[in-house]
Amino acid sequence: MQAFQDRMYELIVRTSTTLPADGLQALARARGGESAGTRNAIANAAIAINVDMAFKGTAPVCQDTGMPTFVVHHPLGFDTIQAAEQIKLALRRATAAGIMRPNSVDSVTGANEGNEGTLYPVVKFEAWREDSLHVSLVLKGGGSENMSAQYSLPAVLDGLGKAGRDLEGVRKCVLHALYKAQGKGCSPGFLGVGIGGDRAGSYELSKKQLLRSLDDTNPDPVLAKLEDLVVEQGNTLGVGTLGFGGETTVLSCKVAKRNRLPASFFVSVAYNCWAFRRQGLTMALESFENQGWDYLREDAPTSLLKPGEEGGIGGDGSAVKRLTIPLSEDDVRGLKVGDVVLLTGMIHTGRDTFHHHHTTHDCPVDVEGGVIYHCGPVMLKQDGKWKVMAAGPTTSIREEPYQADINKKLGLRAVIGKGGMGAKTLQGLADHGAVYLNAVGGAAQYCAQCVVDVPGVHYLEEFGVPEAMWHFDVVDFPAFVTMDSHGNSLHADVDKTSFEKLQALADQAF
User: Fold this and answer.
1) 189 three-class SS
2) Which of 24-38, 366-380, 427-441, 485-499 is predicted least confidently?
3) Cβ within 8 Å of residue 325, ≥6 positions away
4) Neighbour tally for 114: CB within 10 Å
5) What is the C-alpha separation between 157 and 347, in angstroms, rounded?
């Protein structure tokens, strides 16, 4: 089945590096609704550059290549055991090529198994009576997976009150999940919703809705109405791109239902980030010849770029603040929420394991006045030298229990991540004199091209590639000040205003 493995490798590469045409169309429409010169407009321009770079360079759109989820439709008699093995081998090839990140860790020990760790995908086989094969793949990163949600009705929801066992209750659940995601899931998002079933079946149903074409019409007119209503009302929340505030918070909503037990009423919401990495292909049964890709559109844009955007943040002459690392306290005290900065110097990656480890251990390098980047990059070693294949930010809120203490202990002056952090970190920034910088979530290629050298790495053997402490020499690395040293937080402000708008939707009955 080498030919089948080759097709699976092609599917993985295409899904990781190229957004589907219907997803590009949705992002293009969203760009048209944002005001020029705003944080959203700047972030959207960076997203457009990133998508273009990933496509042209055949490189991952986002460094978090997620938990690969395959759905294989096959005739009776197809060897599913062999097919599953070939999918794992194709994933191993893609990881070795820098297309996938070695994401899988032991749930108890936390040990990362390297390229072998990609051998644990979700593969679902479904028999059909066609004489061909069809395979779909979703690469859904951890940030958006963490923002997915499941509700058991009836329930009482913050801001929305009682959610009963009806479509009005379902509407409230979906809007509540969308509000809670904020920028942590790299908004604007695509939603899949499953109504009914058992707990496992409900969430599986919601995730399958992400495979639907964005321009289809639900055959159930009541569910079609619900889909449209969620998009309409969700876009009044004002969460906007990356949670910066703005006009577009949700790009699509697809809903399906399944029968349930009388005692249970589950509503599951699968949240997917703007980097909507899903694809599918049809193959001939015996030769495995590719008979066509899914989601093709003749009128779809091939690029999201607008004239003059190729230069990136600051390239159009817009106001930015250029800073050189190490930073002084005066440097960061001079920054305020809303500033756009370009950093030059050494930054160091540090995620969950790094922060937990350094509560009781000393740092192996001097980072006084330095910058920690919440990032788990995709790295490839070529001719004895490390190359950054993708290096966008991960969701920062996971480090909330540690960040203020780590900043003070290590003498850090800046933290880069996405989605913002909480009250403890905000107070720590003010007390110590540090700043939180929001990089462009999902823009792994745009961020990676700012890395000019990788002089070293710590904890690679102990923690694995995503959790290791990588040392990046960067030039003009772009980020937005969203939490400053004066007690201001854009994330808290957007959360407050979007919650007020959520409350206004409580009584707008379905």
Assistant:
1) strand
2) 24-38
3) 343, 344, 345, 346, 347, 369, 370, 371
4) 15
5) 41
C-alpha of 382 from chain center = 27
Q: What is the reported pLDDT for 38? A: 81
Chain centroid to CA 73: 27
Side-chain half-sphere CA neighbours of 217 within 13 A: 4
- Find, among 68, 26, 31, the residue nearest to 49 by Cα: 31
Query: Which residues contact residue 174 at a Cβ distance below 8 angstroms, ignoring those fewer than 6 apart?
Result: 191, 193, 230, 234, 253, 267, 269
Neighbour order of strands in the sheet with 149-152: 149-152, 266-272, 189-196, 250-258
Q: Are 300 and 24 in contact (CB under 8 A)?
A: yes
Rounded Cα–Cα distance for residues 64 and 392 (Å):
8
DSSP state of 275: S
DSSP 8-state class, residue 328? P
CA–CA distances in Å: residue 64 to residues 279, 427, 465: 17, 29, 12
**260-265 LR contacts (CB < 8 Å, sep 24+):** 260/196, 260/197, 260/198, 261/198, 264/152, 264/198, 265/152, 265/153, 265/154, 265/165, 265/169, 265/196
Residue 316 has pLDDT above 80, yes or no: no
- Residue 119 is predicted with a pLDDT of 66
For residues 242-266, give the mean pLDDT.
96
**Residue 116's pLDDT is what?**
64
**How far, CA to CA in Å, does 429 sit from each of 258, 333, 483?**
48, 10, 8
Pairing between β-strand 278-284 and β-strand 290-293 as defined by DSSP bridges: antiparallel
Angle at 212 between CA 298 and CA 198, to 5 degrees: 175
SS3 content of the chain, % helix, strand, coil (to 5): 35, 25, 40
